[in-house]
Amino acid sequence: MPSPTAQLRAPLLWILFPFMAGLTAAWLWPMPASGSFPVVASALILSAVATWIAFRPGRWNHGAWAICLCAAISLGSFAMLHFREPQLHQWETVPPREISLTMRIDRVYPDRPQARNVSGLGTIVATSDADDSLIGRRIYFSALRRISKSPVGSGSYLISGVIEALPRKPVPASFDDYLENLGIRQKLTRGKIGAESSSPTAFRKFCTRVDAHFGRILSLGLEAHPEVRSLYIAMLLGEKAVLSPDQQNAFMRSGTFHIFSISGLHVGIIALALHSVLRLLQIPRRATMALSLLILWFYLEVTGINSPAVRSFLMIAFLFTSQLFRLSGNPLAALSGAALVTLLIDPLQLFSAGFQMSYAVVAALVVMGVPLTRKNLDRWHPFPLLPRPNWERRHKIIDWGGRSLLGSCSAGWVAFLASTPAGIGYFQLFSPGSLIANLVIIPLSSLAIIGGFLSLLAGLLGLASLSALFNSSSAMTIIIMDWLVQHGTRLPCVYFNAHFTHAWLAPLSIIAVTACMFAGLAGGWSRRCGGYWSPVVVLAVTLIFGVKFG
To answer: In 258-333, which ranges are E strands?
Structure first.
């Protein structure tokens, strides 16, 4: 791990901050795309000034260059969002209207086999009117279907119905709020599905077949336990819709629902397993990294791409690339690069719950979690009077257990600090029980994921009995997890219903806690800069004065 000073030298980090500032300003103060040209001109002028200053000798030129460059980046991202979303300011004012369009089905929500109504997410390919701004947008749809045929995969269908824009500030915890967090800005209701205009691509058909095959492999030996099978498949394939409402509520209240989202936990474990297997096969180092990335990306395509998964994949890709070029791996630089690439592809991801919670938690773990863990481990001396060469096996076991517990507690505490403001703002839940729950659930879920990976590997090799054995062992772990969560959420003070008294306090508290962590890193976490207590104090003040419980 690089030193704090080396981490803050990550150039993409200082591009990311003004880039996000410009997107936030564009979100708060929308304007027509035509009004963006003066902003673009100002950004170009500032870029030219920054370039001129960079080649001028002088004591104060470095600060002036940084200010001009940051201002240029902010203005550029401000204009970019308005060019990408020209109707950003009209979302609340566009009235519902009837429309016929061609839509590529991206996801179909599970429903009853004989139900006539089907709903899901799709991407608009073409429209019947002159509104070309809708092309390429993702929407939620609810439409009637023919009982014999349901849209699946990524085939394109002719759909007619009533399209309407979602409010920019939906009711918290509502379905509109859920759609906004996914980056959905329109929905089509009272629709009717017509003929299929184009079939899914060969690759998408292959991914659909692979997904179904993975589900069959993970079901081997668990046919008599549908609830356990649902949890298992949801954990390995990210299919949260198969969970019952009681299961979803229990894991949400305990603060452990993230184990069902394909994220850093899944990608990291699978990446490590893939790297180990490929190295055992004596495949060259560079080929191992390339194959690992290729298999990981295919896994994300099969399970459904989301913000945490993309973040994890891009971080691994940046770290692998740095190793290939024999550069020192900087996790903060990799995280900054992953966030920047994500926002360049879809700037509106910045305002989704998945993006904010995913990147905030990982940034907190890198910035504060690692130094705090090191500090706690340096103070860990279970046998100060006994030299290490004289340690017996029991001494080594106690030392390993204590170090593991200290590391897990430090990481869990930092993740709690970073995720609490977003959890209250987006889900109206404050879960202090997650501090203890994650210490138990994350190791158990890691064992289940490893068992699932081995099951898939055995199933792909045609070893059905071995796959069933791995599934059964993972099922035992999942039964323990489910029992702990179901009974743990019934204890007092595990979770509280909470919400901010003002909507603007949610993003402000996220920024304040994150800023305190970066300030602590810049100051070497010295007591003069508040040490490790500054984010705690900020969060405590927010909970006392800005949050209403109940």
So the answer is: none
List, edge to edge, every strand of the sheet that includes 429-430: 429-430, 496-500, 547-549
267-273: long-range contacts, CB 8 A cutoff, minimum separation 24: 267/296, 267/300, 267/309, 267/312, 267/313, 267/316, 268/312, 268/316, 269/446, 269/449, 269/450, 269/453, 270/296, 270/299, 270/449, 270/453, 271/296, 271/316, 273/450, 273/453
Helix axes 202-219, 464-488, angle to 10 degrees: 80
Contact 408, 229 (CB under 8 A): no
Average pLDDT, the chain: 79
User: Which residue's entry shows tokens 């200082």?
Assistant: 14
Q: Which residues contact 313 (CB under 8 A, 6 or more apart)?
A: 267, 293, 296, 297, 300
- 236-248 per-residue burial string, b: 16 or more CB within 10 A, e: under 16: bbbbbebbeeebe
- Closest by CA position to 266, among listed 287, 226, 230, 239: 239
What pTM did the predictor assign?
Answer: 0.79
Residue 366 has pLDDT above 50, yes or no: yes
| Six-digit token string for 98 | 């009837």
